[in-house]
Amino acid sequence: MSDIIIRVEDLGKKYLIRHEQAGKKYKALRDVLTDGAKSLVRPFQNTKSQNRREEFWALKDVSFEIKQGDRVGVIGRNGAGKSTLLKILSRITEPTTGRIRIKGRVASLLEVGTGFHPELTGRENIFLNGAILGMSREEIKCKFDEIVAFAEIEQFLDTPVKRYSSGMYVRLAFAVAAHLEPEILIVDEVLAVGDAAFQKKCLGKMRDVSDEGRTVLFVSHNMGMLQELSEKSIWLDRGEVAYKGDVRESVSKYLSSGQVFNDAVVDLGDHPNRLGGMKRILDSVSVRAIEGEAQRNFIQSEDILLYVDYKAPKDIRLAGAGFIISTLEGIRVGSFNTYMAFPPPHSIPTKGRVRFIIPARQFTPGSYVVTVSLGSHQGTLADKVENCINFMIDQSDVYGTGYLLTKEDGVVTLSVKAEVSKV
Q1: What is the DSSP secondary-structure string of 134-190?
Q2: What angle (nearest 5°) sits at the alpha carbon of residue 220, between those of residues 218 and 224?
Q3: CA angle, 296 as apex, 295 and 302 as ends, to 5°?
Q4: Read out DSSP for 134-147?
Q5: Which of 66, 133, 262, 376 is at 20 to 30 A from 2, Cα to Cα?
Q6: Distance CA 57, CA 217 (A)
Q7: pLDDT tens across 91-137, in order?
């Protein structure tokens, strides 16, 4: 069809991962010199490889079509293949198998600093990026003032971008990508670097880009933001398309994947929702009644006990544990951790259990999902498992007036005093 602007057919991307010989954690300088000498003495002798290579398919048999003017969100866990897909669509990486067809110019914002020359000033990089997109100097000049105004970096326009903060970098990079009129705008998670006001500004601009008939591909772990911007979604799971279609349906399926909705106690040892690169320290998570019995359903007048059990190797010093509670639609309701509960210095035992007591009256009736994590020191994750357990909140007369809250009242129960006077 003529309005298909991106067509992806049986796309695959393979990487070769090298594993060191078992039992050999590092090479000393003498090993390097010895191996080099051996290769000179016996250049033609077949020797058994000291390393093993494993094939890893970041993407496999990925197929979809995107129409002109579509706003498409790409979701999936870390390591699902989202960034690889965007790099291939941006022509940064070549696919191993399959093919893609793209109509028009593509502007990409994939990583902080991508497409910018660090030694050039902000002004010079605007013209450089425009030239890369195939625009003339006059075309870039027409958009120049809009770009600078949007990025809000006029004071630093003639400063080399290597001196920019990550937030300034993203401001300018997004402004350039969105204003130089590409037919396709591809944006990865980098907007998370910006402040809330700038994120809102970017979302508005991406809507404008789509309303002008251009196409937007957007990757985010923020399900609320993604649903606000996107109409359609592609969910990638371990390199394959798990679902493509309506964004709300996609988010619902994604958030409920890997969960055992009937269990109030969940084993986290080999949980599929563990973030890539995490150490397997979290053992289990459970939701319980105040008496200690495992249960998933609570009324608003009860307390929810959230138990996090873990065991770390002796060489890892743990600083704290925490959790995030979200709705099934991906809206973050709130989070808490032991850093908030106790003053520094922050430390928890190598092996132990953390118990959080959460008043259920804070939530309106409905289903909620929980992410749990451990920190090795403040700001650094040791282990994290997303959306690994859920609980249900049922109605209760929390105000003592007979008014029962529903989802129409929002996601949190407000504690407010009201006064009425005659005037």
Answers
A1: T--HHHHHHHHHHHHHHHT-GGGTTSBGGGS-HHHHHHHHHHHHHHS--SEEEE-GG
A2: 105
A3: 80
A4: T--HHHHHHHHHHH
A5: 133
A6: 22
A7: 889 999 999 999 988 888 776 666 788 899 999 999 988 887 777 88
- Give the Cα separation of 239 and 11 in Å (integer): 10
Cis peptide upstream of residue 118 (ω within 30 degrees of 0): no
Residues 244 and 386 in one domain: no
The answer to whether residue 12 is domain-embedded is no
Strands across the sheet with 97-102, in order?
A: 52-67, 4-19, 97-102
Q: What pLDDT sits at residue 51?
A: 59
Q: What is the mean pLDDT of residues 139-166?
A: 90
206 and 328 belong to one structural domain: no
Structural domain containing residue 93: 57-256
Co-location of 246 and 334 in the same domain:
no
Q: What is the pTM of this model?
A: 0.65
Q: In the predicted model, is pLDDT for residue 272 greater than 60?
A: yes
DSSP string, 288-311: E-TTS-B-SEEETTSEEEEEEEEE
Is residue 1 over pLDDT 50?
no
Contact 160, 119 (CB under 8 A): yes
- Give tens-digit pLDDT for 9-67: 999 999 887 755 545 555 555 665 666 665 555 555 554 445 567 788 999 999 999 99
Say which CATH number the domain at 396 has.
2.70.50.60
Last residue of a domain, one of 256, 282, 315: 256
